[in-house]
Fold:
Amino acid sequence: MTHWVKLAVGSNGMVNDMLSAKDNDFLNYLRDASEAGKIRWQPTAGESQFTASLKGKYNVVTGTDHDGPWLKMTNEQDQMMLFIHANDDAADRVERIFVAARRVGLDVDAAIDDIISGE
Structure:
């Protein structure tokens, strides 16, 4: 009997298994915490990229390219542990994380308050 395993070719050109349950849990956590303002996203030197340190030993970067938002997690040795492109996330969490990271990283709410305060 032949068993077929469906593999996805990620936007980074690497062949990946579909998102695991842990990947989904992680995306849900990042989405919820980012939208609640609990993650301190900071802009990077890269255009439209934002970074956050988690637990003092993991780094998450989100950014966008011509195909849309992406998310990358690295460890203390700067080894890429996880890369997920929005195209691989049918629930649009990667896009929502990017939007929340940009809002926090660029302090959009403070800018809006400054503009509408009339001062």
Helices lie at 21-35, 93-105, 108-116. The radius of gyration is 16 Å.
